[in-house]
Design goal:
Keywords: Plasmid. With 644 residues, the protein is an alpha/beta fold. The chain has a domain at 39-182. Helices cover 18% and strands 32% of the residues. The strands form 7 sheets. The protein has a 24-stranded parallel beta sheet that branches. A 12-stranded parallel beta sheet has the order 16-19-21-23-26-29-32-35-38-41-44-47. It has a 5-stranded mixed beta sheet with strand order 1-3-2-4-7. β9 (143-144) and β10 form a beta hairpin. The relative contact order is 0.07.
Length: 644
């Protein structure tokens, strides 16, 4: 077997050993530091595009730019504290090298005030100064969208004047590097998952209970039509719809509950929405709804990327929320939809500006041709709860747009083009959903959001199990099985832990250009390729001595715990679980020496992933048992970890 790329590098290593290391790095021993660059020319971290676009034009957040010895790009950090936290992370120097130069913005050049939210506002652009020459105000009232921030000044007197107005203390660069900062990062998202679940339980309990109202009108006894019952019912009562089919469309404009007995069906005329809600605190339960109009969208066109946010939202409002649906709710907070079955060629449930809505135990069957339908459930500026619901076919099963904090849990999704699709939505919790044979992407998180949690989901049979974009995201305890790609890892500064990737063509594709993620205690079993990485420096997928389980990546020869690291992007290691003889080659002394050399020089491992603490056995055996690949996992001593 011939490995040309590694053979060339191996020859280089041998020549280097023979000639000495001096030939590897040519240049002055103490070269002049590089000059700062415009911030928009850096690879920036610490602020999402969504957060940046939401800031007032006069807001000038503290920024840092760093030139690293072994990284080809200049890295821009929003906030001095973001750089300090990044530098403290294990493996940071190994991935990037050491800082050749660090520059920070100088607030002494401008008049600076703080908005009510603590964001700094200046009367002019700021210049760059060397961080080692600057003075830093720590612990003031200044904030960024991520939390507290450090404000730098070239002159100590300017820094002291800022503390008199806004609090804090003046630190040197060395003192600042020793500080810890309270920022809203992925660990905060992880720690609040249970709290968010409990808070949502309270919302569900309140919203559902409020829809439990005494019956005041019985259709067929007190009135002839459902609409007449709605019009005559006193507020906070129930209109009861007996068994039968009622061919009409209805509008609910008062706080009542519309409830059906077994077999009650409202059948629209096939031209428009069937049930329209325009009042808060409405309940809809125990009904079948059919006869929905075919209009999956409500306008001729949707705006392009050049349209500003306000114009986009306005067009979105017309294009999507003005479409036909079984239930169409507009400015109807605390809506309760429960035990409802929907057949629709277009949309199932549309929620516009209707926060704290609860959809539970519903069934939505969309158009088998996804090109002709749209959303099973669409939430536009409507954070609430969607749970224990089944959605089949259509284009997007669940589509959330600017619905910060929405919770989508314990749903069954099958056969749509996209499963759960988030746009411009922060702080969402997607938990314990089961997605099967979604055509394109099971969970699709796009437009650079932050602080979302994706926990306990199972995604099978998609082109892409999940595409997760944004920052400060928590992805844990999910199962990605039998997808073309299990996970497109595109969210930076995030935590990916205790997931199982089994039987995919590719387990994970790391798309993030900066190695700011923690990827640990995941299991990779029976994937054609366990993981790949795009451009960027070496990614180290282990933390505090804990790594991931890689089928085939360890053996009894490596010890327990293994003394040998594993790289799923290495041309030999990536074949260990599927090519006979690869294990012997991988452990050849020459290649071991090469691996150690490459790990010591991050520039040798661009576009690479290394786990320096691979596990001997799966980290998540209970999750692995849910897959069809459990009998492919072995311990370091050659013992099967499960009973097939």
């Amino acid at each position: 077997m011939y490995w040309p790329s590694r053979e060339v590098v191996l020859i280089t290593v041998m020549l280097t050993a023979a000639l000495g290391t001096g030939g590897l790095f040519v240049g002055d021993a103490d070269p002049a530091p590089p000059d700062p660059v415009p911030f928009d020319e850096t690879v920036s971290v610490g602020l999402t595009l969504e957060a940046e676009q939401s800031l007032d034009e006069n807001v000038t957040l503290p920024r840092t730019q760093v030139f690293y010895s072994q990284y080809q790009y200049v890295v821009g950090y929003y906030g001095v504290e973001t750089f300090v936290d990044a530098k403290r992370q294990a493996g940071h120097d190994q991935r990037f090298g050491y800082p050749l130069a660090v520059y920070v913005t100088d607030y002494g050049d401008a008049t600076v005030e703080l908005q009510d939210d603590g964001y700094p506002v200046t009367d002019r652009p700021l210049s760059w100064i060397d961080a080692t020459d600057a003075w830093f105000v720590v612990g003031s009232d200044a904030r960024t969208p991520s939390g507290e921030t450090v404000v730098p000044f070239a002159d100590r007197a300017d820094a002291a004047a800022f503390t008199e107005a806004h609090g804090g203390e003046v630190y040197t660069w060395e003192q600042t590097l020793e500080e810890s900062f309270d920022t809203d990062d992925a660990t905060v998202v992880r720690d609040r998952v249970d709290e968010q679940d409990r808070r949502v339980d309270a919302v569900v309990k309140s919203t559902v209970a409020q829809a439990d109202r005494p019956v005041s009108i019985v259709v067929g006894e007190d009135v002839d039509t459902v609409q007449e019952g709605i019009d005559e019912a006193p507020a906070n009562t129930t209109v009861l719809v007996p068994d039968g089919t009622y061919e009409e469309t209805v509008r609910i404009d008062r706080p009542i509950t519309l409830a059906g007995e077994d077999g009650a069906t409202i059948h629209g005329d096939g031209n428009g929405s069937v049930v329209t809600v325009t009042e808060p605190r409405v309940g809809i339960r125990n009904l079948e709804i059919t006869g929905v109009g075919p209009m999956a969208s409500g306008a001729e066109e949707v705006p392009g990327e050049s349209i500003d946010d306000d114009a986009w939202d306005e067009k979105f409002l017309t294009y999507y929320t003005g479409a036909d649906a079984a239930i169409s709710a507009h400015v109807a907070a605390e809506l309760s939809i429960e035990n409802v079955t929907i057949e629709t060629p277009s949309n199932g449930i549309i929620l516009r500006e209707s926060p704290d809505t609860v959809v539970r135990n519903a069934t939505v069957r969309g158009n088998e041709r996804w090109e002709d339908g749209f959303a099973g459930i669409m939430a536009f500026q409507s954070p609430g709860v969607i749970e224990e619901t089944t959605i089949v076919d259509g284009r997007d099963a669940i589509y959330a747009y600017r619905s910060e904090g929405i919770v989508v849990r314990e749903n069954e999704i099958e056969g749509s083009l996209l499963g759960v699709h988030l746009m411009h939505t922060n702080g969402a919790l997607l938990a314990d959903n089961r997605l099967t044979d979604v055509i394109d992407t099971g969970i699709y998180v796009m437009t650079g959001p932050e602080r979302n949690a994706i926990v306990g989901n199972e995604v099978r049979g998609s082109v892409t199990g999940s595409y997760v974009g944004g920052t400060d995201t928590y992805v844990a305890e999910n199962v990605f099985e039998a997808n073309d790609v299990g996970l497109e890892l595109a969210a930076a500064a995030s935590i990916y832990e205790r997931n199982v990737f089994a039987g995919n063509q590719l387990g994970v594709n790391d798309r993030v250009i900066l190695p700011t993620n923690r990827v640990v205690e995941n299991d990779f079993v029976a994937n054609d390729d366990h993981a790949t990485a795009g451009s960027g420096p070496l990614r180290i997928w282990s933390h505090d001595g804990r790594g991931n389980y890689w089928q085939g990546g360890t053996s009894i020869a490596d010890g327990d715990p293994p003394s040998r690291s594993y790289s799923p992007t290495d041309p030999v290691d990536r074949r260990l679980h599927r090519t006979d003889g690869a294990a012997t080659l991988a452990r050849a002394p020459a290649l071991d020496a090469l691996s150690e050399f490459e790990e010591s020089v991050s520039g040798m491992r661009t576009g690479s992933i290394t786990d320096v603490a691979p596990a001997c056995e799966p980290n998540n055996p209970e999750l692995l048992e849910r897959t069809d690949q459990a009998d492919r996992a072995w311990t370091c001593d050659g013992t099967l970890t499960t009973n097939p």
